[in-house]
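User: Good morning. I'm curious how iron/sulfur cluster would be positioned relative to this chain. Could you predict the structure with it bound?
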Amino acid sequence: MKGLVICVCQGTCPSFSKINVFELGNKFRREKKVDFVAIHPQLCASDGDNFWKVLLSSGDRISKLIVAGCAPEMQLKMFKWVFKEMGFDESKFKPVEIRNMTTEEAVQAIEKALQD
Ligand code: SF4
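Assistant: Good morning! Here's the predicted structure, ligand included:
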């Protein structure tokens, strides 16, 4: 299964003000380009750790995991440990930066990651 998780710094960060996250997630759902979509307010907080632990307890069923949010290198730094702890194959993780983008620009960035 392919999944899209969108993270938006609690929805209060100006970097995400040009994106309609619901429109973004719905586009990929409607077109069936991914098998599941989730919007999380703050994946790098402790409840984000819990989210990963629950989601990745079935990590072997995930073939690709797009995480749309902050910079890829930041994401990797923050999530690497939990992927390791949960035995999730890091090569399935596709971090995508969507900060300071419009909804349409974010769509294109995610589309590209889905094709890679
Ligand atoms: S993981 Fe990145 S996008 Fe999500 S809340 Fe943390 S800094 Fe913001």
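The beta strands are 2-7, 36-40, 64-69, 93-97. The mean pLDDT is 97.
Let me know if you'd like a different ligand tried.
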